[in-house]
Predict the 3D structure of the following.
Amino acid sequence: MMNPVFLELGGFSLKWYTLFVLIAVIIGLYLVCRETKRFGIKNDFILNLAFYVIIFGLIGARLYYVIFKWDYYSNNLLEVLQIWQGGIAIHGAIIGGIITIFVYCRKYNVRLIRYLDFVLIPLLLSQAIGRWGNFFNSEAYGGETTVQALQSLLVPKVVIEGMYIDGAYRFPAFWFEFLACLTLFLVFLFIRRGKYTKVGTMTGLYLMGYGVVRFFIEINRFDALMIMGYKMAQLVSVVMFLIGLVIIMINMRKSKFEDLYNDKNNIDTLRF
């Protein structure tokens, strides 16, 4: 079982989870700015958007978790605000972030799907990095297993040792989600540069890809948020996949040269 604290100075402690989330945000934001710069979009516009997305994404992540743990928080209302104690969910962050981007794009009269394309692919890398925070928190794991079984799956020694929790080795669900998100990120980077890739394709692929990944990862997680006996993350993943599929199908109906992602003339004029 890993030590969740990265650094302690006096009464201040910095947890590994917080550190990895900060790293994930910084790297993700850098990649978004790097991509939007190709299209002549000002960094100030993206940084302002990121400011609100981070805030409301975090609020969404916390509210999502609290709602599905309401039996506990209804009797401990003050703890709802104690986010530093843990308890956030990536699906809540995605929902909160997308709503924020929608409102922001409406305000400045720019195309929502364009900016989702810019944001969601770097988000995959950020999610992959953030999963290491789960590792140091000794969470996002599955049932009991053996060292031999984990070695047969080519799980690194450091991960195997960190998954010795409560007297048994556990299935490292976080590790396989890390690998899946990293793989999707690299594959989608290649697709994004495709000559005939259309606006919205990257959003559709993200929703479908992460939907599939999380649905199957959730099978092996023991700390899932539940609703009426079902794992909420799996239900949301199915919805994500279906929305992504609809987006891809709409794009398939367009002509080969219509609405191309890499057409730098196919970008909204920002209105300030």
Remarks:
- The mean pLDDT is 90.
- Residues 5-252 form one domain.
- Strands lie at 5-9, 12-15, 144-145, 164-165, 168-170, 226-227, 230-231.
